[in-house]
Design goal:
By secondary structure, this protein is of the alpha/beta class. It is built from 16 helices and 14 strands. The strands form two sheets. Strands 2-1-3-4-5-6-14-13 form an eight-stranded mixed sheet, sandwiched between helices.
């Protein structure tokens, strides 16, 4: 049972506290409902049946991406000619109608046979918190051992053709399974995060190399006890695309971008938008809801009610969205970092009792955004201060992205490529910290001109 919780740590870890989220932001609750989800996924896997996951034609570095967001983290590394690259993607495939290259059919089929075992685990579990997790992710627990079996067979077959495997989200159960089995076969594992790290996330373990964006990410794991690791601080390749959006579009009216995510309180955002539409009538608003949000259609309805333009996260690059706004409003979201990278003024909307004053990414603490809770406070701040016309302080963002003040501000991809090919020695300055981690930083010799 402990292994089930280890692999599904996103739900089982009490410090993350995901089950304390508002019910609307969680999967539909109930073991019967989760079993129906498992059955649905099985039939979908039959429709999308593919065997590409089992193909490794050449000796390659494997990038494992589980969804669109993770795939986007790897896109810059792949370049334009993916077929000729020494890199290949497992998992999510953006070029094939978003089908999964993971063997979901076999895993779903075997998962059905694991239902009695998982139900028994549910019955004998005495910890009330862990017992509750079954009601939200029973089907995930059913998939754990079938996934381990299929991954073991696959890596056993192709272990000599895989140079290394790069992961981007350690909370995903598939990642944890592939990572651990890879290490048992002596395959090198690398962690390249798709987003900044929240302080409540567990310490990373069992990777040979860590490609952290900057000091914030490193300090979190150093303080949590990461030891004997090989760490590079180099920014994030996903931000390289922002170089195309450094010049803002000219506009006469103040344009405010509003970015709710799946953890936000929709009613409070509705109240915020209503207040802003009434008191900032000269402003233009852009709404960018998260497509994975179960309330997505309701967000579209709000936008239609107030005649607000909607930015489609899947169709419009984040840089294009940010290029068209002057001010960003968001809650506990990584978009604050992208906005700061481009010099956009940010406001942190405290709207969710679950995340109240949590500031998991230290966005407020490190002054990347101005905090507000009442809509009238935002209006007063915008209307009565020189905040928008003053010079923006960029010192905070450097703490999160080591390449920000270097000539690699928009070329973290090159640094990653050099590390992957083990040709990075001339680009980094190295030291050993108190936890015996070997830490490589870009250093002053690579400072921007």
């Amino acid at each position: 049972m402990k292994e089930l919780y280890y692999y599904n740590i996103e739900y089982s870890d009490q410090e993350i506290g995901y089950l304390a989220s508002p019910p609307a932001n969680l999967p539909r609750k109930g073991i019967v409902i989760r079993l129906l989800v498992l059955a649905k996924e099985f039939f979908i896997s039959i429709q999308n049946l593919r065997f590409s996951f089992f193909t490794v034609k050449l000796e390659r570095v494997v990038l494992f991406a589980n969804n669109q967001n993770e795939y986007n983290s790897f896109k810059p590394l792949l370049g334009l000619e993916e077929e000729k690259s020494d890199l290949m993607v497992w998992g999510f495939d953006d070029q094939a109608k978003k089908f999964s290259l993971f063997p979901n059919f076999l895993i779903s089929l075997l998962s059905i046979f694991c239902v009695p075992y998982v139900f028994l685990c549910y019955l004998i579990e005495k910890n009330s918190g862990l017992k509750e997790t079954y009601k939200y992710c029973f089907e995930v627990y059913c998939k754990v051992n079938p996934t381990r079996f299929i991954v073991y067979l696959n890596l056993l077959l192709y272990r000599k053709k895989i140079k290394k495997i790069i992961f981007t989200n350690d909370l995903n159960y598939k990642v944890r399974i592939i990572k651990n089995i890879s290490r048992s076969f002596g395959i090198e594992t690398v962690f390249l995060p798709h987003a900044q790290e929240a302080v409540v996330f567990p310490v990373l373990t069992n990777y040979d190399t860590y490609l952290f964006p900057g000091a914030h990410f490193y300090n979190i794991h150093f303080n949590k006890g990461l030891k004997g690791a090989n760490i590079f601080l180099l920014g994030t390749p996903k931000f390289d695309q922002l170089s195309f959006y450094t010049s803002k579009n000219k506009r006469e009216k103040l344009t405010i971008g509003i970015c709710p995510n799946t953890a936000d309180d929709m009613e409070k955002y509705n109240g915020l938008i209503t207040h802003l539409a009434t008191h900032l009538q000269e402003a233009i608003f852009l709404l960018r809801p998260h497509p994975a949000d179960r309330n997505y259609r309701n967000w579209l309805s709000i936008a239609n009610q107030y005649q607000i333009k909607v930015s489609d996260l899947l169709a419009e690059p984040v840089g294009e969205f940010l290029k068209n706004i002057d001010v960003l409003i968001a809650g506990e979201s990584n978009i604050h970092f992208e906005a700061n990278y481009l010099g956009i003024r940010c406001f942190y909307f405290v709207n969710n009792s679950f995340l109240y004053k949590r500031d998991s990414y230290n966005i407020i603490k490190n002054k990347l955004a101005v905090e507000f809770e009442k809509p009238e406070d935002f209006v007063q701040y915008i209307s009565g201060s020189d905040y928008l016309s003053s010079q923006k302080d960029e010192s905070g963002i450097k703490y999160y992205y080591d390449n920000f003040n270097s000539k690699f501000r928009y070329d973290s991809t090159l640094l990653c490529r050099k590390i992957i090919s083990e040709d990075e020695s001339s680009l980094f300055t190295s030291l050993v910290d108190a936890n015996h981690n070997k830490v490589h930083t870009i250093g002053e010799k690579q400072a921007s001109d």
